[in-house]
Amino acid sequence: MKKLLPILFLIINLCFATGVAQNAVAQATKISGHIFDNDSQKPVSGVSVSVKGRNTGTITNAEGYFELKTNTPATLLISLMGYARQEKEVASSESLRINLVPAIEELNQVVVTASRVEENILRSPVSIEKMDSRAIQQTPSANFYDGLVNLKSLDMVTSSLTYKQINTRGFNTTGNSRFLQLVDGVDNQPSGLGFAMGNLFGPHDIDVESAELIPGAASALYGPIAFNGMLNTRTKNPFEYQGLSAQTKFGINHIGDGTDLGAKPLYDLAIRYAKAFNNKLAFKVNASYLKGTDWYANDYTDIDPNTNPENRGPNNPGRNALNIYGDEVAQALPNIGRVSRTGYEEKDLATYGVYSLKLSGALHYRITDKLEAIYQGNYNQGTAQYTGSNRFVINDFKFVQHRLELRGSNFYVRAYTNHEYSTNSYNTRALGQQINRTWVKDLAGNTVAPNKADSTWFARYAAAYTGEVGGVTQQNHTAARAFADEGRIAPGSDAFNTAKDQLIKTRGLAGAGILSQCSLNHIEGMYDFSSLLKVINFQVGGNYRKYFLNTGGTLFDDKDKNLTNEEYGVFAQASKSFWKDKLKLTVSGRYDKNENFDGRFTPRASAVFSPNENHHFRASYQTGFRNPTIGDQYIKLNVGPIIILGGAPVNSEGMNAYTNSVTIASFSQFAAAFGADVQNGVPFPQAVANNKDKLVKSSVPYIKSEKVKSYEVGYKGLIAKRLLFDINYYYSHYTDFMINTVVAAAPSNILAADGSVNQMAAMELLGAGRQLYQLYTNAKDEVSIQGVSAGLTYSLPKNYKVSANATWIDFNMGDADPNNIPAFNTPKWKTNVMFGNARLTDRLGFNVAWHWQEAFDWYGTFTEMRPGRVNAYNLLDAQVSYRIPSLKTVVKLGGSNITNKYIVQAYGSPAVGGLYYVSLNFDELFR
């Protein structure tokens, strides 16, 4: 932090000095005008009109009219997708008439995420995808976030109607801590969860201007979370997008879902209002509410690992069904075999009535035309299901953000806070297990305490099966289960609902509730020295972040403690063009330091060769790293037979888990050999002495960062002015993957002074002195991936457009131990095809999108890393829109997965079917 603060203060001082000094004597001038289509001479709405080098801009209204105030002389930048970008010199107050010439829109696509500065997408130094406002309006998916699946390289998995997770380039999960999501520069992750919840806590479509995707490592500019890639979403500026906009959407899902519950409605209502005053002060407010019925996780496949596959199924006494909870509790009963408890289906435990409430407001004040101050506040609340190590209900979860920003034409300073309030969320699997412990009766008919419920239930089962209970058919599993289940509370009953509510309120091992009120504070800044240096483009920046943990001791060791974590990072980037702007070289590097880990330097270098404006070749070397999440560092959870212990050194102070333990494999060998000797009559001390040397002292290092090095080459260009083609190849090498390992610890030193195994420690490991730990550490194994992604967009006559992309990715394990490598969870092949016409007539438009991916095995903690097949599937989305200019309204009829084939995207998560909708979009009212 001491190293970072001087840089941040320098940026702040430069901000004020530059912004104020350059505008001290300037006088604002009103500039207005109309913009028309050059061919039809009809006014064009939505055209962006900004002042070059200043924070001043607006967009045209339905009549093609704009007005703004700025200092003159000035250069106006006029742009809209589908038209050639123009620059217009303005010397004084005047009314302009500007004609836009249609052009290949990709020539004018501008992105900011790839290099943190504005640049043409064709000359981006790394692979980048963009979804602009028009693509958002025309997507046939239910919302813009779902529509991201059509970008090449992107994977999407559904855990809930309100929660979808995205990823790029492999190692996919349902809670992705390797992928960064920014909204207006703000990290969108709740700090306790350690990953962004899709777009459950994010902007509504009605306020989204664009979304930019970087597939692959982006740590060199964005730090440790951007290990696999990042998504940068930008909302609409209230100076440029004024007036009242509203959307009302009605949808329906669960058609033909195989249940008798029938189709369910979905409602999505949103409103946005923005207003500017004298081009100095502007504000916007947003409100949206979505409500629907979640997708059902109702796969009852028996996945019990201790039963031979041919014996699994509904009649298996030891059945462990995928989406039934409570039946994971099982025992091997003598002379009977493996028996599991009767569980409850997820639909009886989960909260399938999901919703998302989003409220936000922003205030923008232009101190000068080069200096703007911004405050934004976001309040989000919602319910979703999440598939992690268990199925969780993120229930009435509140996420609050505040952002303060000072922005100039060549700098910004931004500070923000994220606060999460999870007081009503719960673990669905734990809930099923705990309900099962509330009603069990002993053989005398008395309800037993929860801590005795499981053993009592199995005793009842055994007694009934072996004929010890009169009136119960012996040697009959069905009869024995019925007897053991006597008194079982039925789903939906008053007793069941009472127990469910009480256990959700009970946190820790005795209940199912989850408490998290964690937060983070973040400050960052960047200054672009390019205009000062002239001969080279140069940017520097840095950030500081502090986490505040509060789980009441239910997850972290933070009860009655102020547990915090700090980190900071600084970066610099330089670029230079050569050979009349045909070759652009860029180098960047970033240094990050977390209080628990060594500092990391992540460089990036790239070259873009552009023989002309239509053809661009790129090559890059990138590095990335990922710090352990807050949970990886600080979890300290005693679950009875084992303590789950995070890998930060401070987290295990006073404990001997990392420093004085033996490997679990050697302990198992020692215990088995010791037991054999005792059975053969060998005295206890001698049996220990005979076998203690089988124990191997563990050497588990404290956790550290994951690392990746990546090489990429690509080409992007226009062919015959109609065909945009983009292709890239990459190779990435990964090391130090984070893993869990189990050890056994003893109070005494494992090794004696002479280096041999201590007899006393060996004896303690066999008794009450033994403590098992699940530790977070890193694997020594190395793996690599390679991949190719290619896309093309072809502009056909009469405004038709077709685009397609394909992604191939290959995972090379080499000699690595599969148990030490995170699950890849990515199909080798996936493709997307889109066809549409936004202007089929003056009022009518349509769009169709088709996604396909091949089958693969999904490995997840929900099934203890045992594989589950995700079958190949395709999704067909389509929409037809009709514009009513007099009402400034667009009517849209569409659907996602319109073939209504129910598909699973992550094993254990719900099957997703068709969602059909009709929406009304009112835009720019009262502008």
From TrEMBL:
Gene3D superfamilies recorded: Carboxypeptidase-like, regulatory domain, TonB-dependent receptor, beta-barrel domain, TonB-dependent receptor, plug domain
Localization annotation: Cell outer membrane
Pfam families registered for this protein in UniProt: CarbopepD_reg_2 (PF13715), Plug (PF07715), TonB_dep_Rec_b-barrel (PF00593)
InterPro entries named in the record: Beta-barrel_TonB (IPR000531), Beta-barrel_TonB_sf (IPR036942), CarboxyPept-like_regulatory (IPR008969), Plug_dom (IPR012910), Plug_dom_sf (IPR037066), TonB-dep_rcpt-like (IPR039426)
Keyword Membrane attributed: yes
GO molecular function: siderophore uptake transmembrane transporter activity
Domain of life of the source: Bacteria
Key words of the record: Cell outer membrane, Membrane, Receptor, Signal, TonB box, Transmembrane, Transmembrane beta strand, Transport
GO cellular component: cell outer membrane
Statement: the UniProt record of this protein carries the keyword Ribonucleoprotein: no
TonB-dependent receptor-like beta-barrel domain span: 376-897
Signal sequence extent: 1-17
Main subcellular localisation: membrane
Positions of the TonB-dependent receptor plug domain: 123-229
Gene Ontology process terms (BP): siderophore transmembrane transport
Membrane topology, record value: Multi-pass membrane protein
Family according to the record: Belongs to the TonB-dependent receptor family.
Name of protein: Outer membrane receptor proteins, mostly Fe transport
Organism: Dyadobacter soli
UniProt lineage: Bacteria, Pseudomonadati, Bacteroidota, Cytophagia, Cytophagales
